[in-house]
Design a protein that fits this description.
This protein is an alpha+beta fold. The protein contains 20 helices and 26 strands. The two termini are about 105 Å apart.
């Protein structure tokens, strides 16, 4: 429980708390029980005493009133007083009447005997005072009663007493508190008792006995069980105090005459209502006092017979109260004493707890310190604990553990040293292997790219930047689609296909780099698995542009070699046969016996033989081209001369020629014969590109433009030349490259003919490929061979029904490397 409530406390604090708690809690419980028991007991005692006191006051006041009643009845029933009343009924008596004197003497003796009366008076039914016995002294120590002379008696001023006795029956007595003023103007508090005097037929007067209020208060104040500090209060129905044991200062002054001496002023309305209810009870809630209350008498009219008549309706109530502080004084004193002893006991308990827990905490602190030292690696440290108990045994086990740790640490250190040496050696080997492998990968022209299963780029080899044009730092952790496919480098994501199929996939993409050059990129995706799941993909990216071009070159070379060999065979075999056939036909044609029709047929045959000989010649020229002879020539002149040769065919077809030459173009090293033959072939192809059978209204144009220019994009081509030093007489090739920005001469030859189909455009330089009925398919291959032999490149652009344009690019330094 302590651990949950106070988790941050030390073990010593917890032990002290437990020790003190076990010691103090029983004492606190017993003390609290004793305090509450004493409070309850003292409250019950106070209530019992208050009830007893109130009942005693009520009994004594009842006895006091009973004595007054007895005195008045004794006076009224005396023979002398009976005679006096009868006389009063008949005729008023003079003061010097013997009966009056006798009655006055009897009343004087009565007052001097009782000593509680201030006055005894008799008034007639008209309110006139007939006689009065009065105490002339206002002090308690010097009573002096006397008969008041006739001259000092009051007449017709006693209305108050008639109100008191109104409706009273014979022998009934009414009483009420009052204040009288003596001849010295001193206020004397009294209680007036009035008894009507009846004759035989009617009331003749009133007997009045004024008792000192102090005598009544002496009865109330006799409180043998009242504790010091308590108070007794007598009050009327209106709440005014008739008597208050704490506020009374002078017996000769009634406190009821002051506003502040009122029950409503001192207590809440709910408490006042209970005190004036006429019931008996105890009040202890809602105030700081305990009050026992009850009514003093139910009605101011009483008689010996106990009959109650109507008269003054005022009631009188008495209560006694004791402050709770006075009742709780002993309890408070006991609580203070108990608290003092509890504090002393707590200090002693804490001191003993500190002393006792030190026997635990000191060795525990030593254990803690030893643990910290050993945790720092000092396994040679040993504890010194001499408690001769379980903690000492624990310390011994701790020392044993430390010794064992020291031995194991030494063994571990030895193993660590060996392991470090092995790791260092193996790390060196792995580093060497890694460096070798990295060197191999970095020097491989292909780019190795490692992707995670989400196709994000993790790492790549050194060739990545050269092949893709992206730096690894810029694309690391990016999706390969975002980097490669969105930038046009990949046509489709081969890695996703490989990941879906779970096997190696590859394909080749054709792309255009930022220099406008055509490139061929090979992608190979290899899914890499762990525990049967694909965790990453290895993509190998290779630029196979050179290989692709070489393949095309090899294919073209094979075609040309095959075409050359076939041309040589055909030319060799056909030439001999054609020569024999031509000689025979020529001999037949010289015969005079032939008719005209026969001569015509022989002429057609001879023309066909001539055409066949031209084809054989072309085949021989293609198979065994003549060596080039380069001399400085004007490119403009060669164009004009070639155009002049083809002019007849051009004019025959009605074609318009538009020509624009650059006169500032310097002479170039050219083979005039071969180059003019190449240009003438292009011109003749342009003439043959017009189909006048389908569109006779269309005017043909050939546009020739010779100029100097700078290449806007890199141009590449393979040339096929004959090596005169090659004994095997085989054709070999080289790659011709015009880099972007290279200055060169260009011959543009465009026509507005029918154009070339896209499917045929790639094959126009292939030997024997032709779309013409009488064509051999060797003209354009010979043109390409001648241009390449001049280190030039020929390109063609054509659209169906829109014409064709040939561009021949020649370096201005042509012939320098020939």
């Amino acid at each position: 429980m302590i651990n949950k409530i106070f988790p941050w406390l030390s073990i010593r604090s917890k032990l002290i708390i437990a020790f003190v708690g076990l010691s103090i809690i029983p004492l606190v419980l017993v003390g609290i029980h004793s305090i509450f028991s004493n409070v309850q007991m003292m409250e019950n005692n106070a209530i019992e005493n208050l009830n007893h006191n109130v009942n005693t006051i009520r009994e004594k006041t009842a006895n006091f009133l009973a004595n007054i009643e007895s005195d008045l009845h004794t006076l009224r029933n005396s023979t002398l007083f009976e005679t006096y009343v009868k006389k009063m009924e008949l005729t008023p008596l003079e003061p010097d009447n013997i009966l009056v004197k006798q009655i006055s003497a009897e009343l004087l003796s009565f007052c001097q005997t009782k000593m509680i009366y201030y006055q005894i008076r008799v008034i007639d039914d008209n309110g006139n005072e007939l006689l009065r016995i009065e105490n002339n002294s206002v002090t308690d120590s010097l009573p002096g009663f006397s008969i008041t002379p006739q001259s000092k008696l009051r007449n017709a001023r006693e209305t108050y007493y008639f109100i008191m006795v109104n409706n009273l029956l014979r022998d009934q007595i009414a009483f009420a508190p009052a204040e009288l003023v003596d001849q010295n103007n001193e206020v004397i508090p009294i209680i007036s008792f009035a008894m009507p005097l009846f004759g035989a037929t009617h009331r003749v007067g009133i007997l009045i006995a004024n008792v000192y209020a102090k005598e009544f208060f002496h009865v109330i104040e006799s409180r043998p069980h009242l504790e010091d500090g308590g108070k007794v209060v007598l009050t009327r129905t209106d709440g005014n105090y008739l008597y208050h044991s704490e506020k009374k200062k002078n017996w000769n002054k009634l406190l009821a005459s002051k506003e502040v001496d009122n029950l409503h002023y001192d207590y809440p309305s709910a408490i006042v209502a209970q005190l004036l209810s006429g019931n008996e009870g105890i009040i202890s809630e809602g105030i700081d006092e305990i009050i026992s209350y009850g009514s003093l008498f139910q009605n101011p009219v009483f008689s010996a017979s106990g009959r109650v008549a109507s008269g003054l309706t005022s009631k009188f109530f008495v209560f006694e109260s004791v402050p709770k502080d006075i009742i709780m004084g002993p309890v408070r004193s006991y609580a203070y004493t108990f608290t003092g002893f509890l504090a002393l006991f707590l200090v002693i308990a804490i001191g003993l707890g500190l002393l006792a827990t030190r026997q635990f905490t000191k060795p525990i602190l030593a254990l803690q310190r030893g643990t910290e030292i050993i945790a720092e690696g000092n396994y040679g440290y040993r504890l010194q604990v001499d408690t001769h108990d379980e903690i000492e045994k624990l310390a011994a086990q701790f020392n044993s553990m430390a010794a064992s740790l020291e031995i194991h640490t030494q063994e571990i250190q030895e193993h660590r040293t060996k392991l470090e040496e092995m790791v260092k050696k193996r790390t060196g080997e792995l580093t060497d292997e890694k460096m070798k492998l990295q060197a191999i990968i970095d020097n491989v022209p292909s780019a190795f790219v490692l992707l995670d299963k989400d196709f994000r780029i993790r790492t790549a080899s050194a060739a990545f930047s050269a092949v893709t044009g992206f730096h690894l730092e810029e694309v690391r952790d990016k999706n390969c689609d975002e980097v490669l496919c969105n930038n046009g480098f990949c046509q489709e994501c081969i890695c996703r296909i490989a990941c879906q199929n779970g096997k190696i996939e590859s394909h080749v993409d054709r792309a255009i780099n930022n220099k406008g050059e055509e490139r061929f990129i090979e992608h190979i995706a290899i899914p890499m698995k762990e525990a049967g799941e694909i965790t990453s993909i290895l993509e190998i990216i290779t630029d196979i542009t050179d290989r692709k071009r070489l393949e095309q070159h090899i294919i073209q070379t094979e075609k040309l070699m095959a075409a050359g060999e076939m041309s040589a065979i055909i030319a060799h075999e056909f030439r001999n046969l054609l020569t024999s056939v031509k000689i025979i036909l020529q001999l037949q044609n010289e015969s005079v016996r032939l008719s005209r029709n026969e001569k015509t047929s022989l002429a057609v045959a001879l023309n066909s033989i001539d055409h066949m000989e031209n084809i054989v010649t072309e085949l021989l020229n293609f198979a065994r081209p003549k060596l080039m002879e380069f001399r400085e020539q004007s490119l403009n002149n060669l164009v004009n001369e070639s155009l002049a040769i083809a002019q007849m065919q051009i004019n025959k077809q009605g074609i318009t020629v538009k020509k624009k030459l650059d006169p500032s173009l310097q002479p170039l090293l050219l083979d005039a014969t071969h180059f003019k033959e190449a240009l003438m072939n292009i011109f003749l192809n342009a003439v043959q590109a017009f189909d006048y059978n389908t569109d006779k209204a269309k005017k043909g144009e050939i546009i020739i433009n010779v100029k100097k220019t700078r290449i806007q994009k890199t141009l590449r081509d393979f040339s096929f030349v004959e090596d005169i030093n090659n004994k095997d007489d085989k054709q070999i090739g080289k790659e011709i490259i015009f880099k972007k920005g290279t200055e060169c001469a260009v011959i543009e030859i465009a026509d507005t003919g029918v154009g070339i189909d896209r499917i045929h455009l790639k094959r126009i330089f292939d030997p024997f490929f032709t779309t013409k009925p009488n064509g051999t398919g060797l003209g354009l291959p010979m043109v390409k061979r001648t241009v390449n032999a001049h280190d030039g490149i020929i390109t063609v652009v054509s659209r169906k029904s829109q014409g064709t344009r040939f561009n021949i690019y020649l370096p201005l330094s042509i012939g320098a490397n020939i």
